[in-house]
Design goal:
Length: 212
């Protein structure tokens, strides 16, 4: 009786994997939401964390182009993504990075701000980027660099992705005091806290990690 019940439970266990169209929608909508948050930051002259923020800081300090630095910084992370997170995760992450790049250029053509309060931009921009990243994470995708390392540490060591990213972002933002006005850095830190708390509170180990 027990064996029969167990077999029945196994055969009726729902498939938690995401379908292709679900992944496509998540990548499109998630990256669009992230790009809107990035636009709020750009309009208010705020900075973000992760590898993009690190690349910008290195560019300001050395004069080397952002693209070269960003590519070089991400190389070991994509290797980690391929070796530890799988080919599907790596491909979806590459696609997500490309979509954010495209949407970030298109957003100014779609939206124009006549007035934007920087405090609102910091909070709303951080929230939008956090929500967008959460959508990507739940479909096993990221935006490269620290996102990949954060997901790897969460899956394999149980370290919350949001808390880890928050720590890294705060280090990067602390370095921004050398290049940005004091108030802009403080608002950027506020945005980073909002972004990473959204991820930490809504993306926990063992949840939303549906593998294909």
């Amino acid at each position: 009786m027990t064996s029969t019940t167990t077999n029945t439970a196994e055969t009726t266990k729902p498939d938690l994997g995401h379908r292709l169209y679900e992944d496509v929608l998540a990548l499109l909508l998630g990256t669009m939401v992230v790009s809107l948050g990035v636009m709020l930051y750009s309009e208010s002259v705020l900075v973000t964390g992760s590898t993009a923020g690190a690349a910008l800081l290195i560019e300001h300090a050395t004069g080397i182009g952002f693209g070269v630095i960003f590519f070089a910084i991400n190389l070991p992370f994509y290797w980690l993504a391929f070796k530890r997170m799988g080919l599907a995760f790596t491909i979806k992450t590459f696609i997500a990075v490309g979509l954010v790049s495209v949407f970030s250029k298109l957003m100014p053509m779609w939206i124009d701000f006549s007035m934007l309060n920087p405090i609102f931009a910091a909070i709303a921009g951080g929230a939008l980027m956090g929500i967008g990243l959460l959508m990507l994470f739940r479909h096993r995708a990221g935006l490269g660099g620290i996102n990949i390392l954060a997901l790897f540490l969460q899956e394999h060591l149980g370290i919350r992705a949001g808390y880890f990213q928050l720590a890294v972002d705060l280090v990067i933002l602390a370095c921004a005091f050398l290049t940005l006005p004091f108030d802009k850095v403080l608002l950027s830190i506020l945005g980073a806290v909002v972004l990473n708390l959204i991820i930490a509170l809504n993306h926990r180990p063992g949840r939303y990690l549906a593998a294909r």
